[in-house]
Specification:
3 strands; 71% helix; 264 residues; mainly alpha
Length: 264
């Protein structure tokens, strides 16, 4: 609304009219002066970048919210409500001293929720990799080839490679959550067993015996249960489960390769 206050003082030719116009709009001119001062402080303090980061955080939480019932869900919701109220009344610049603490509270809440989710998936991925390396499929695969199979999933830049997390600033948090969202971290926990089964099947396939000819061009492979389980000793149910998993993965690897399995 400042433009209307400027029109008459800068266009009137009569000096008296100019003075009267200034006096008539005295309150507006004073408010404009104060507002411009606040805006200058806001911009020179690089607060615009912080404000834009706050809106990105709100958008991030809209698409990838903190789960209901999470300890930090309520504190984030309250901080977001405080920010949105100030934005709605268009007083971010004037009320930055109120907006900034709300932004910091929202960032802290989302950071804690994100960090805990990331660490949970990171730990699960490490445990899955350890379990694969302890499996019969890994032990039975050629030493020169088996780690390359793991690297396709757990190697740098791959689906299950989780680097050390550093989200000390809002910018770092937004960057990390942009690459691996809070939603995707929950999905990763569900996907890990599938990755393990896939890898163990590929490892088992590395040590498969050569196929034998079948009827009408059918690819056939002979499988001997005695050979697969001979010499093994089982003292716990877990050992039995691991052995049967190895057998299952070996048979599935044959089938995926287009072979008909003939039990001998």
């Amino acid at each position: 609304g400042a433009e209307s206050a400027l029109t008459e003082p800068v266009t009137a030719k009569d000096p008296t009219a100019v003075v009267r116009a200034f006096l008539d709009k005295e309150a507006t001119w004073k408010a404009l002066h104060v507002g411009l001062g606040e805006l200058r402080t806001f911009l020179e303090g690089n607060r615009l970048a912080d404000f834009e980061a706050s809106r990105r955080l709100v958008a991030m939480a809209e698409n990838h919210p903190i789960p209901d019932g999470h300890p930090k869900a309520a504190s984030f919701a309250q901080a977001r409500k405080d920010m949105d109220a100030i934005v709605a009344e268009k007083s971010v610049v004037h009320r930055w001293s109120d907006y900034r603490p709300a932004f910091e509270a929202a960032t802290a809440a989302y950071r804690e929720a994100y960090t805990l989710a990331y660490q949970r998936v990171q730990k699960a991925a490490e445990e899955t990799l350890t379990a694969i390396k302890a499996s019969a499929a890994y032990a039975g695969a050629p030493v020169a080839l088996r780690d390359a199979v793991l690297a396709k999933v757990f190697g740098p830049g791959r689906a299950c490679h989780y680097v050390a997390l550093s989200v000390g600033s809002a910018a770092a948090l937004l960057d990390a959550a942009g690459k691996r969202s809070l939603t995707s971290l929950d999905q990763a926990l569900v996907a890990l067993p599938g990755y393990r089964a896939q890898i163990e099947a590929e490892l088992a396939a590395l040590s498969l015996p050569p196929p034998v000819p079948g009827e009408a061009g059918e690819k056939v492979v002979e499988w001997r249960p005695v050979t697969a389980l001979a010499g093994k000793r089982f003292k716990t149910e877990d050992e039995v489960d691991r052995a049967l998993d190895a057998v299952r993965n070996e048979l599935k690897a044959h089938v995926r390769g287009g072979f008909t399995v003939v039990v001998k």
